[in-house]
């Protein structure tokens, strides 16, 4: 038993040093290695959830009719242009000529029909519901596809920039988990489970040829190992640093460039709006007043990130800085709690067992203690236990998790979502935003953001920063992470 | 110099007792006084180096390291006491029963014992944590249950030895009940062995709690725990190694202390060594 104990300590020490990828970087100037924290379970995002698969493959191996650029705008990709009908239900896409899939098949309007309809029939992940609004797809000509929606929807075109908009060939979907076939600038070469994925430039690509002919996507479970890989020349780029306190060492080193931008990841203190005492707006407001979000950001994220005050990141067209709606004001918090007739309340803060969440929970608990709210922190195994108990069974008072999906403010229109927020006004506004003109959409979305902030439907602690560290020779990295893809197409070198 | 004289001069027991005493002292003191509130978060003083006010500096939450180590000592001792308590209270009677009861019962108890022994303590604790929710209590009970076999084995072998002695044979011939023999003759004679085992198991329990808290299956935040201090320092290892070194040394002191204490006590109490003293 004693030997077992000693081995354990040793194993803990050794694993801290060696977790992660072991492939060494070849000194090929046409190759680039990029380090990531989360590895895809397989390569099929039509049947497997998880952000890591589209991060590696979307825009790089797979392309859609449209894509999201670094500023959050929807721009043409496989569609040269498109028109929207008067009633906003019919989209006519003119496709790019001379596009082929990596298996040699030409890309035509037939493939658009096949891919969009396949989302409804063959996909199994929950995001497939994004295509429910599609009524039918007509093949008007070989390079002219017409998509008819059941009702007008601004969200649909945006969703076409995500993985559900990816274009597949009927001859290329036999083994999606291992052999992806797309039209993108890269093709999938090899995969070493637990270690890396290798992509190679697609020789028959229709667009600008990428600057690097070989891309190594390397995976490191341990953030320290990921940092060390860049420091020790094992990789050229860290896609996103998750331990903000370690960023200083890269900023201080002239070998590296550090880019800091925004993500879609709102670190959210969620309230159970459907259950006492947090069904009382005054209590939620009190908690929101009691928490110094800047201090949370300072401790959890070394002060890096953005104060947002609602569920909207700055890259969305309807962003407004709402961080001042409930400023840090403990006296006001106590007054509101007294008004609600609550003294010495105890709340369960059931958080994902992830470093940022457990860290944020301790700051929140300490600050709520100052206004007389007793918080017990319960870290839950993530994802399994957290998803079951908090997300599915709604067994919680408060929780902390990053909400990483783009435009996930729409979840406040779903009363069955885990935070149980039920507002007919927000639901009505969401419908208006989806069916209205783009101007109307922006206006309605702004009002939703303000409404949920006023209601203190949740407390948006801060927006997680996107921090990329790279060797100075690497150019063309985008500061913000707004799409589902780690877009390799813009990369260059000095 | 004779072996016996060398043995007496071995400082194992003294050093062990001093180290354990240090941990106990820290824990007791923490009830009366700590330099700062160990759980109060203050972004203004985060990641300070050692100063007069903060002897070992502060962590990324601006919490004082000394205060956390002091209160963490409580958690460490608490876990050790309960885990060893569970193991001794269940394991000792089982071992004595296996030695004194009918042969089939003894075999059965010891085979079940082997089964539990084959199950890694940490795995059991992680399983408990997943099923009943991670907390100090589930960790302690799981570690305790995993430690039962070592107590049962030692109690059994000690009992078998005692049972073959002449005074026990005499007691049996005189018609004393099994329970009376167990109580009057067996327990006092195996007590020394069990105390030694307790000390060694204590060290293992301390290490297991640290490992579990490190993995997020042990003590819940914000209650200070040395293992969680280590875990929270992990991402800062390259920038602020002090945050890992301080709790690391604390764990090393406690584990070393209980191990040395166990070794020292064995030299004193083990009947097999008694003749050489």
Automatic annotation (TrEMBL), chain A:
**For the Solute-binding protein family domain, which residue ranges apply?**
74-403
- Listed PROSITE patterns: PROKAR_LIPOPROTEIN
Transmembrane spans: none
Keyword Signal listed: yes
Q: Which UniProt keywords apply?
A: Signal
- SUPFAM superfamilies on file: Periplasmic binding protein-like II
* Cross-referenced InterPro entries: Peptide/Ni-bd, SBP_5, SBP_5_dom
Q: Where is the signal peptide?
A: 1-27
Q: Is Signal found in the keyword set? A: yes
Kindly provide the name given to this protein in its UniProt entry. Answer: Periplasmic substrate-binding component of ABC-type dipeptide/oligopeptide transport system
Species per Swiss-Prot/TrEMBL record: Kibdelosporangium persicum
From TrEMBL, chain B:
Q: Where in the cell is the protein located? A: Cell membrane
ABC transmembrane type-1 domain mapped to chain residues = 73-262
What the entry lists under CDD domains is as follows: TM_PBP2 (cd06261)
Where is it predominantly found?
A: membrane
**Transport as UniProt keyword:** yes
As given in the record, the signal peptide range reads none
The protein's name: Binding-protein-dependent transport systems inner membrane component
């Amino acid at each position: 038993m004693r030997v077992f104990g000693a081995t354990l300590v040793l194993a803990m020490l050794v694993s801290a040093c060696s977790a992660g990828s072991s492939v060494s970087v070849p000194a090929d100037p046409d190759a680039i290695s990029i380090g990531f924290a989360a590895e895809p379970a397989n390569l099929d995002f039509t049947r497997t959830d998880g952000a890591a698969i589209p991060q590696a493959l979307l825009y790089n191996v797979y392309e859609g009719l449209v894509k999201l650029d670094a500023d959050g705008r929807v721009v043409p990709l496989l569609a040269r242009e498109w028109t929207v009908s008067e009633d906003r239900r019919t989209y006519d896409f003119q496709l790019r000529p001379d596009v082929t899939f990596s298996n040699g098949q030409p890309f035509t309007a037939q493939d658009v029909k096949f891919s969009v309809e396949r989302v409804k029939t063959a996909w199994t992940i929950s995001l497939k519901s994004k295509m429910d609004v599609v009524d039918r797809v007509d093949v008007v000509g070989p390079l002219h596809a017409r998509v008819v929606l059941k009702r007008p929807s601004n969200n649909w075109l945006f969703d076409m920039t995500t993985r559900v908009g990816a274009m597949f060939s009927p001859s290329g979907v036999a083994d999606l988990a291992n052999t992806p076939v797309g039209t993108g600038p890269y093709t999938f070469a090899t995969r070493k489970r637990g270690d890396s994925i290798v992509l190679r430039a697609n020789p028959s690509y229709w667009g600008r040829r990428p600057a690097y002919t070989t891309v190594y996507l390397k995976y490191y479970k341990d953030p320290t190992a990921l940092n060390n890989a860049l420091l020790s020349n094992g990789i050229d780029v860290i896609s996103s640093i998750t331990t903000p306190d370690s960023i200083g060492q890269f900023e201080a080193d002239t070998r590296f460039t550090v880019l800091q931008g925004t993500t879609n990841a709102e670190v959210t203190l969620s309230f159970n709006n459907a259950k006492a005492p947090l069904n009382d707006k005054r209590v939620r407001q009190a908690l929101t007043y009691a928490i110094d979000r800047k201090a949370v950001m300072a401790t959890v994220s070394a002060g890096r990130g953005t104060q947002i005050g609602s569920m909207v990141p700055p890259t969305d067209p309807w962003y407004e800085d709402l961080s001042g709606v409930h400023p840090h004001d403990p006296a006001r918090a106590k007054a509101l709690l007294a008004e609600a007739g609550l003294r010495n309340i105890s709340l369960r803060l059931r958080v994902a067992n992830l470093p940022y969440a457990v860290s944020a929970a301790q700051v929140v608990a300490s600050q709520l203690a100052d206004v007389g709210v007793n918080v017990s922190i319960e870290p839950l195994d993530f994802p399994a236990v957290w998803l079951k108990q908090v997300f599915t069974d709604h067994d919680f008072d408060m929780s902390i998790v990053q909400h990483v999906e783009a435009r996930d403010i729409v979840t406040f229109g779903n009363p069955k979502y885990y935070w149980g927020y039920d507002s007919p006004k927000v639901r009505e506004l969401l419908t208006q935003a989806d069916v209205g003109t783009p101007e109307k959409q922006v206006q309605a979305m702004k009002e939703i953001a303000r409404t949920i902030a006023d209601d203190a439907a949740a407390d948006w602690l801060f927006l997680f920063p996107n921090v990329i560290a790279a060797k100075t020779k690497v150019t063309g990295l985008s500061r913000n992470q707004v799409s589902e893809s780690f877009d390799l197409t813009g990369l260059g070198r000095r | 110099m004779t072996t016996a004289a060398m043995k007496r001069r071995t400082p194992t027991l003294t050093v062990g007792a001093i180290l354990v005493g240090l941990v106990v002292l820290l824990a007791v003191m923490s009830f009366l006084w700590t330099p700062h509130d160990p759980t109060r978060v203050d972004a203004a003083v985060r990641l300070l180096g050692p100063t007069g006010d903060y002897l070992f500096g502060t962590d990324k939450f601006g919490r004082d390291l000394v205060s956390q180590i002091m209160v963490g000592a409580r958690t460490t001792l608490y876990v050790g006491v309960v885990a060893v308590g569970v193991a001794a209270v269940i394991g000792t009677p089982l071992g004595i029963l296996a030695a004194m009861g009918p042969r089939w019962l003894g075999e059965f108890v010891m085979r079940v014992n082997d089964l539990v022994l084959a199950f890694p303590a940490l795995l059991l604790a992680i399983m408990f944590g997943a099923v009943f929710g991670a907390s100090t209590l589930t960790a302690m009970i799981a570690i305790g249950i995993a430690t039962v076999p070592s107590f049962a084995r030692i109690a059994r072998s000690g009992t078998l030895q005692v049972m073959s002695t002449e005074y026990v044979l005499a007691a049996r011939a005189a018609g004393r009940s099994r329970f009376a023999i167990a109580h009057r003759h067996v327990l006092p004679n195996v007590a020394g062995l069990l105390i030694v085992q307790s000390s060694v198991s204590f060290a293992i329990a301390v290490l297991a709690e640290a490992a579990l808290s490190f993995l997020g299956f042990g003590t819940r935040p914000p209650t200070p725990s040395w293992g969680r201090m280590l875990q929270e320092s992990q991402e800062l290892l390259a920038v602020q190694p002090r945050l890992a070194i301080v709790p690391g040394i604390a764990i090393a002191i406690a584990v070393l202390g209980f191990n040395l204490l166990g070794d020292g006590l064995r030299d004193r109490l083990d009947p097999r060594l008694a003749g050489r003293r």
